[in-house]
Amino acid sequence: MLHGQRIFVVIPSYNSGDLLEAVLASVPAFVDGCIVVDDGSCPETMPADDGRTIVIRHSRNRGVGAAIISGYAEAARRGADVAAVMAADNQMDPADLPALLEPVLSGQAVYCKGDRLSHPECRNRMPVVRYIGNCCLTFLTRVVTGLPTLMDSQCGYTALRLDVLPGIPVRWLYPRYGFPNDLLAALAGAGCPVAQVVVAPVYRGERSGIRPIVAVLVYPWILVRGILVRMISRCGGLRRAREAVRLQRARAGV
């Protein structure tokens, strides 16, 4: 718990093996619970539930975005105020978690993203192809979302205030690797403030789960549909605003 608020960490996992154990061991003591979402992994790769770690399972692989949404829902059900996402590949430095949470806990933002590209060691640590790809996708995501200061759209190290979820079109969000772009579009459409903090890029020679040809074919579609998600979210925000005005007038007898 930090600042009197309950903090959970959501860890989407697919056949992560020993890397998942290392992530769980690294989660700071102030975190109230860890939600491990088994996205169709082999059962023997999952840890056992204990007082702090909760495992929920998808019967089939539904994608990292779907796993994160399931984790958010479970964290909210267990009374969490804020949920951070840490990947099961052990590429997120737990020392960065307090800084990532701070803008959300202090009320400056409802969502905070890690920014690896602004880290002074990024170009030395991140593979060149990933660096170029992330820079290009970040530029395009700025255009789609209307977030001009966005620096690293693809970073999965994030923190979200969970009470914002009912106000965005969760069921429209892309369930796989394009999830971060869609969530940014939905939050931007709803007028939710988004923050970012510099985090360490961590690479240990792991191979990316995204093949270049898949990225070339899929991401243009994700960016185009992000425009739709932003519009849907904006319309929902306008409806909620009109309803709030109607209720206010009703209470005032107008």
Brief account:
A 7-stranded mixed sheet has the order 3-2-1-4-6-5-7, sandwiched between helices. The chain contains 7 helices and 7 strands, in the order E-H-E-E-H-E-H-E-H-H-E-H-E-H. It is globular.
Write a structural description:
With 254 residues, the protein is α/β, with parallel strands linked by helices. The protein has one domain: Spore Coat Polysaccharide Biosynthesis Protein SpsA, Chain A (Alpha-Beta Complex). Helix content is 42%, strand content 15%. It is built from seven helices and seven strands. Strand 1, helix 1 and strand 2 form a beta-alpha-beta unit. The chain is globular and about 45 Å long. The model has no long low-confidence stretch (mean pLDDT 85).
What's the SSE blueprint?
Blueprint: E1 7-13, H1 18-26, E2 33-39, E3 53-58, H2 64-77, E4 82-85, H3 97-105, E5 111-115, H4 122-125, H5 128-145, E6 158-161, H6 179-189, E7 194-198, H7 212-252
Parallel strand pairs: 1-2, 1-4, 2-3, 5-7
Antiparallel strand pairs: 4-6, 5-6
Helix pairs in contact: 5-7, 6-7
